[in-house]
Design goal:
68 residues, mainly alpha, 3 helices, 9% strand
């Protein structure tokens, strides 16, 4: 039996889920506190997508992702 892959969600949806502002979500993403998947090319990516399970795991673990 195949399971459906977890959908990607927007910064607004993560903000609502965590009960914080979109701006806080994006700041936490830039600092590497919560994981995100950038869309687009170039040095300045403006669009991020998130997986709720990844964000939950990062918050529960309390660790930052390694710097790239």
């Amino acid at each position: 039996m195949a399971t459906e892959p977890e959908p990607f969600v927007t910064a607004d949806e993560i903000a609502e889920y965590l009960k914080i502002t979109r701006r806080q979500v994006l700041e936490m993403t830039r600092k590497g506190i919560i994981p995100a998947y950038p869309l687009g090319v170039g040095q300045y990516r403006k669009v991020w997508r998130f997986k709720i399970s990844d964000v939950e795991a990062a918050i529960v673990s309390g660790t930052r992702k390694p710097s790239a």
